[in-house]
Design goal:
Length: about 90
Amino acid sequence: MKLTDTLPSNDWADDEFGQADFGDARLTQCLAVLARKISQAPHCSFPQALDAATLKAAYRFFDNPKVDVKGVLAPHIGQTNGSKAMNNWWP
């Protein structure tokens, strides 16, 4: 289930990753939360950027069989393509 199907978007992480479809809205929400937290310290590793509870949640998220690289990147790529088309800045 996609996060944006159940909740209105209210920030960049929801806009960027809210269309992730892992079959469970909680996983999509977790991806958005992780993106927000990691963006606050993009130069750091996960253990450096995240508190212990969030780090454990991140490891559980990435270990979930429903989560894969395509599922994480697809909404980001979709947003990038949408922005590209709207702004007409990409050749």
